[in-house]
Design goal:
Layout lengths: L2 H29 L53 E5 L1 H4 L2 H13 L4 E7 L12 H6 L8 H9 L4 E7 L4 H6 L6 E2 L22 H14 L3 E5 L12 E2 L7 H15 L5 E6 L16 H4 L5 E5 L9 E3 L2 E3 L6 H16 L8 E2 L2 E3 L16 H13 L5 E4 L14
Helix pairs in contact: 10-11
Length: 411
């Protein structure tokens, strides 16, 4: 090639670069003042009841954050060897012989093969007599059920038992040990809309208490530990909350707790409950410290609460708008989980399986025209949505444990 031709090519390249640069500058200038207001956008770095507070965003912020990369971990969290199809049961429910026997028979005769049973509920009480010194010190246990009897009844019938352990919503420990609680900027302890105090997730001094309870539960015979309320509070006056963050982000505290749990409970199957909206939004819109791409690093399963009733009127899920989400259980669950699967497929090293909580309760508080009575049909629609989205496991939630049992397939 001649020098003259080379110069022509170089000139053309320089001209193209200059043109592209000018175009970019003009584009950025045009966008000035029109940025998307993203609350707590997805952090661009690698990071080492359920209640009715899951308020959804009507129009989630545009997904503009880059896909995060989780540093691959050589080890894999311990997992169960069954595909869980479960119901949530309170301590009071399994504490009565009639109901305990009923649920044993239900599992023997239907597709149900597992139960989620409270270890410690959001009242702060362990549901059985605990020998954890710190629990006994503050009197944080109640005789709701005989744990040995319940576990034996289920295990004798090949029923998988998941222990639900509510973490940072703990009015017992936080009131008895105020140094561990969320503080009020005006002094004293912060309280939520139900006048309850919470543990400050930033304060690591409360973490051993939770892990000691989990460890005892595993020694008792629970097959898995499910952490619930692994988040910051999202109801009550947020402006009044005073955390001891030391410059750390909320999601860092949550993820560090789960990493600590995995370290302290080697070989134990761990799972974590998360808000359903985090499947849709790339930002921490609820300001609770949960990001889909990060929260599953140190657990075997995440359980997003994709209850249709908990999505706002007009909520957009995976590009589909739901004006009355509770009236479309299949659509809400399906679109949520499809979006979840797509996002997680882009995250290198993500090991957690997805095992959603689905709705088996009637959300009459939504008001006439915005809710429907949930029964077998609505439950089967959600189960179908789980399977159609490519997942195989699910847990039904009803705080009162009055389930649509005719919906479950016969064995």
């Amino acid at each position: 090639m001649s020098i003259k031709n080379k110069r022509k090519i170089l000139f053309s390249r320089y001209f193209l670069v200059a043109l592209l640069s000018l175009s970019l500058i003009l584009s950025l200038s045009a966008c000035k003042g029109k940025e998307v207001d993203v609350n707590n956008p997805l952090p661009d770095k690698t990071v080492a009841d359920n209640d009715g507070d899951d308020v959804q965003e009507t129009e989630p912020p545009e997904e503009v954050s880059p896909t995060p990369t989780i540093t691959p971990d050589e080890s894999v969290p311990a997992k169960s060897d069954i595909k869980v199809r479960a119901l949530y049961l309170t301590g009071w429910t399994v504490g009565g012989d009639d109901r305990l026997n009923h649920y044993v028979e239900l599992a023997k005769n239907t597709e149900i093969n597992s139960y989620v049973v409270d270890i410690k509920d959001d009242d702060g009480y362990v549901g059985y007599e605990s020998n954890v010194p710190a629990v006994r010190e503050i009197g944080a246990w109640m005789n709701k059920y005989n744990v040995d009897k319940v576990l034996k009844a289920f295990h004798d019938n090949d029923i998988h038992v998941i222990g639900r352990l509510v973490c940072f919503k703990d009015p017992m420990l936080s009131s008895k040990k105020p140094e561990l609680a969320v503080k009020n900027v005006n002094g004293g302890l912060w309280k939520d809309n139900h006048n309850l105090t919470w543990l400050d997730p930033y304060n690591k001094d409360s973490w051993p208490y939770l892990i000691d309870i989990a460890r005892e539960a595993v020694e008792k015979g629970f097959d898995e530990i499910q952490f619930d309320y692994i988040r910051f509070p999202n109801d009550g006056s947020k402006k009044s909350m005073n955390f001891n963050s030391n410059g750390k982000e909320k999601y860092e505290a949550i993820n560090e707790f789960l990493a600590y749990a995995r370290q302290e409970l080697p070989g134990v199957v761990l799972s974590a409950d998360v808000f359903g909206i985090i499947l849709e939004s790339p930002a921490d819109t609820e300001d609770i410290g949960q990001y889909l791409e990060y929260v599953g690093k140190d657990v075997a399963y995440i359980s997003p609460m994709v209850y249709p009733s908990h999505y706002a009127v007009g909520q957009i899920v995976n590009g589909v708008q739901f004006m009355k989400p509770d009236l479309d259980p299949y659509g809400v669950v399906y679109q949520s989980l499809v979006k979840c699967k797509d996002r997680l497929s882009k995250v290198e090293g993500y090991k957690a399986e997805v095992r959603p909580y689905i709705q088996d309760f009637t959300a009459s508080w939504l008001g006439k025209g915005y809710y429907q009575s949930y029964g077998p049909q609505q439950l089967r629609e959600q189960i179908k949505a789980v399977y159609d989205a490519g997942y195989e496991e699910w847990i039904c939630w009803d705080a009162n444990n009055t389930y649509s049992e005719t919906a479950f397939l016969k064995d």
